[in-house]
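Lecture notes, unit on binding sites. The following record was shown on slide 14. It pairs a sequence with magnesium ion.
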Amino acid sequence: MRAPSGQPNVAALAERLFHAERDRRAIPRLTAELDDLSVDTAYAVQRALVGMYTRRGERIVAVKGGLTSRAKQQQMGVEEPIYGMITDRMVLEVGEPLRTAELIHPRVEPEIACFVAADLRGPGVTRDEALAAIEAVAPAIEVLDSRYENFSFTLADVVADNASSARMAIGTARVNPRTLDLRLMGMVFELNGEVMETAAGAAILGHPADAIAWVVNKLAEVGEYLPAGSFVMPGAIANAHAVAPGDVVRVELDRVGSLRFSCV
Ligand code: OOG
Ligand code: MG
């Protein structure tokens, strides 16, 4: 979909993704038609899409990094990190089940929610500066739902699709990251009581705080930042797994705590 100028029509592409989500129907990836869709234009589509969410009353509560671990990059065939926005609509209440019928082809993945105590603004934010701005970490599980057929996309496609963001759950534990070594933090991810994935914090760009710094420095390119009171997810620490009604998902972070929810 192009404007008369020949440039991609950002608003129309955002609407396509918005409707795919609303109608729970996967669409062909945007680059099937627009093979020259740039990553910058894709972020403009993402902003337009998130703008449609906020205009209907949603509030941005978090920024997430994505494809920050080798595991995820290899699983999705995209070798570069991305970011996306989480709104209040996407966050499950404590104990709330995941209603899979609301989604197209949901997948779950283990995450670390990091609560931001002081505005974190790039460019040039370092690992230590990112860490200093985080007041607490919590176990989290992200639910992805690509709006594209077969959960298949290029870098530009997934950026436009708000990094496949759909739902997320956050555990009640809150632990000061300065009492932990986030790089060595162990993680166990279970589906129906079976261990599906194990990893350590170093899986995410070498250190979760490096991934947060990446997100903040990338946001600075468009004049945005992580405000105090928000939270950030550095990206899945291991592969994502498809879920169906009846499944129970659980993540456990060493010295932090655990979180589980069931799928209906
Ligand atoms: C893209 C989103 C990736 C992560 O943590 O790596 C992501 C996808 O895999 O569909 O959220
Ligand atoms: Mg994720």
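Take-home: The first helix runs from residue 10 to 23.
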